[in-house]
Design a protein that fits this description.
It is a single chain. By secondary structure, this protein is of the alpha/beta class. About 35% of the residues lie in helices and about 25% in strands. The chain has a single domain (about 30-225), classed as Vaccinia Virus protein VP39 (Rossmann fold, 3-Layer(aba) Sandwich), CATH 3.40.50.150. The protein is built from nine helices and nine strands. The chain is globular. The protein binds S-adenosylmethionine. S-adenosylmethionine binds near residues 66, 84, 85 and 136.
Length: about 240
């Protein structure tokens, strides 16, 4: 998402957790009631299989529910949550303090992640990609690929291609609320394609979950390992220079 401002530059903007900032205080209640939150976030954490010592980034962390659950489950991991909205981050900080866990909470945009290259073993995100325009989705995947270590993994839970007509009808509520444009790639089940286009490999749909607002999909993808990258950047046998 981006909006023009004075001078013709384009400043990044974001779609707040429940579209309008005034609704942020009820975000946790709504997500709990409509997304089978416990099950979907538990399955995402199971899939991510984080180990002590791993550095993990939750992109679009919102009020911190996933990052806090991960910090409780794996206290030896270094967990950072990033979100563009200072109001949800304030809520996340309060929740982390109540839970007694140490989670780094950083304000920033997914399209320009404020972290060095190869900083994280895992990047997670939940209910986040359907908030981004097509361009922002692509920039975000490129950034995720940049900050993942070689061999690092991306694990995503978000609305996917509806599994049947009922799920398609229910998903129309989310699409009308958040926008048909930002949800279009999700509705096509196109996130794995975007992950590969952004430099990741082995992108796949791993699980689907029927929810009151449509099919929630779990995806995974990997950053190529150093060995794979070296192989793919080496000239192929047909073009390799012949040494004298
Ligand atoms: C629907 S909420 C999901 C929150 C949380 N991951 C969860 O599962 O409960 C989406 C979040 O993405 C954030 N967001 C939207 N666009 C963003 C961007 N470009 N960069 C960072 N955060 C963004 C919003 O502020 C919001 O908190």
């Amino acid at each position: 998402m981006a909006e023009p401002h004075q001078g013709g530059e384009v400043a990044p903007s974001y779609l707040p957790a429940l579209r309008w900032k005034a609704l942020t205080p009820v975000f946790d209640l709504v997500v709990r009631a409509t997304t089978r939150e416990r099950t979907s976030k538990r399955r995402l954490l199971d899939q991510a299989n984080v180990s002590p010592g791993d550095r993990v980034l939750d992109v679009g962390a919102g009020t911190g529910t996933l990052a806090i659950a991960l910090a409780k489950r794996c206290p030896g991991a270094g967990v950072t949550g990033l979100d563009a909205d200072p109001a949800v981050l304030a809520r996340a900080r309060r929740k982390a303090a109540v839970a007694g866990v140490d989670v780094g909470l950083v304000e920033g945009f997914s399209t320009a992640l404020p972290f060095p290259d190869a900083s994280f073993d895992r990047v997670l995100s939940s209910l986040f990609f359907h908030h981004l325009s097509g361009t922002a989705k692509r920039q975000t995947v490129t950034e995720i690929s940049r900050v993942l270590k070689p061999g690092g993994e991306l694990h995503v839970a978000d609305y996917g291609r509806p599994a049947n007509g009922l799920m398609a009808a229910l998903f129309l509520v989310v699409r009308a609320f958040d926008g048909y444009d930002v949800t279009a790639d999700n509705a096509r089940g196109a996130l794995p394609e975007l992950f590969v286009d952004g430099g990741l490999e082995r992108a796949e749909l791993s699980q689907q979950l029927a929810t009151p607002l449509g099919t929630l999909a779990l995806y995974r993808a990997c950053k190529p390992s150093a060995a794979t990258s070296a192989l793919s950047s080496a000239p192929s046998s047909s073009t390799r220079a012949i040494q004298p």
